[in-house]
Amino acid sequence: MRKMRFLALAVVALLSFAAVAIAQTNSYDFNGKVPSGGSKKKPKIGGFSFNYSIADPAGNIPTVVKTYKFVIAGSKVNSSAVKAKCTAASINTAGDDSGCSSKAIVGTGSVKAVVGTSGQPLSAKAGDCTLALTAYSAGTNKVALFLNGGTPGAPACLAPILQAIDAKWTNSSKGAGLSFDVPDQLRHQVGLDVPVTEVKSTWKKITGKKGKKKIGYFESIGCGSASQRSATVTFTAEDGTETPMTKDIGKC
Predict the structure, then answer these.
(1) Does any domain span residue 13?
(2) Mean pLDDT, 10 residues at a time, the chain of 252 residues
(3) b/e map of 208-244 (b: 16 or more CB within 10 Å)?
(4) Total domains in the fold of the chain
(5) Could you list the residue range(s) of the whole structural domain that residue 64 is in?
(6) What is the DSSP string of 19-61?
């Protein structure tokens, strides 16, 4: 009986160790560049850049992130500064962004991902995926993030990708925030995981009008008593694990 009890405890310990061994947590980082200055009374119109990276500390293929949200302190977005629009639904119905006006473009960038099985060594990946990113104004506080990895001259992916993601701007006391969920068909391709490893984005300096008043698509409105501007990014994995990160990204 004692031997059986010992054996049972050993099995439990082994299973517990295995559960710990297969647990995987991504590491995240981000950086940005936002214009300094401005106040609520005298906003400063400008563009900005925002980049982030995702990796597995053990050097394996990262887990897939489903939801992204970033907030830039001391900032505000006026989507009405851009009159032209192109929605994610219209892009996905057409199959590409050829029908979108260039006047609706508010940002550009690139997305890198790997194709494989999360948790497996990077050397076992099936391939890499690089996509061109174009952000279109899509109406009030909305953005269409078009990913192009399938047209001639565009970056390549294991399976052709031509799809737009619905994203949403919010303005709060914490600053301007952009959030979006990545559809399953972009998170998984040909039966494999497609975890994003790097995103680079540049958002344009755009000036518009609200009545007779000049407004910017993106405005710096100051950070109160803070000398540095902070940003917060929350990465949410497919299993629901949220990882928030806050960093200073420049002078306020």
Answers:
(1) no
(2) 37 36 78 93 96 96 98 96 98 97 98 96 93 97 95 76 97 96 94 96 96 94 90 96 95 90
(3) beeeeeebbbbbbbbbeeeeebbbbbbbbbbeeeeee
(4) 1
(5) 25-251
(6) HHHH----EEEEEEE------SSS-EE--EEEEEEEE-TTSBP
